[in-house]
Amino acid sequence: MQSRKYSEINLLTTIPGIRIYSAMIILSEIGDINRFTSEEKLYSYTGVTPSVHQSGENTYYGHITKRGSKHLRWILTEVVRVHLIWTKKHTMETKISQYYYRLSKKKPENVVAIAAARKLLQIIYHMLKNKNEFKG
């Protein structure tokens, strides 16, 4: 069990912006990734899905639900910010940074940070499920 956790920590630290402390918080909040049958269930657990209000044929999407782990949302947004600093410093682009900068042209910074955190969570989900390192 412990060796599996160490390998998961090593996987997560391949993402620029995630170090051991961040990886440990993420893994302690997520737990066993196999308990989530889809990435959408992980988003829901984390509270980064938009609230939906429906009335008749009209559908309105609001703020994120925040029904999940506030610690996981916090560390993901912090990792995104550090990730952006790292990519600028190394003049490198990743899927996360491209997504962030594309959205930042038309949305407020905090909204973009949460959206990028959700993108990061998607990457983390697939990395942990498939045991793959971060590829950018």
Folded structure, characterized:
The chain is mostly helical. The protein contains six helices and two strands; from the N terminus they run αααββααα. Helix 2 (20-30) runs antiparallel to helix 4. The chain is globular and about 50 Å long. The mean pLDDT is 89.
What are the defining features of this structure?
136 residues, mainly alpha, two-stranded antiparallel sheet, 6 helices, 2 strands, globular
Largest sheet descriptor: 2 strands, antiparallel
Percent of residues in helices: 55-70%
Principal-axes geometry comes out as: globular
Radius of gyration: 15 Å
Q: Spell the H/E element sequence.
A: HHHEEHHH
| Number of structurally distinct domains | 1
* Mean pLDDT score: 89
Structural classification: mainly alpha
Please count the beta strands (DSSP E, at least 2 residues each): 2
Stretches where pLDDT falls below 50 for ≥5 residues?
none
State the gist of this model.
The chain is mostly helical and 136 residues long. The protein has helices at residues 2-12, 20-30, 39-46, 70-89, 95-104, 109-130; strands at 50-55, 58-64. The longest helix has 22 residues, at 109-130.
List the helices and strands and how they pair.
Layout (H helix, E strand, L loop, with lengths): L1 H11 L7 H11 L8 H8 L3 E6 L2 E7 L5 H20 L5 H10 L4 H22 L6
Antiparallel strand pairs: 1-2
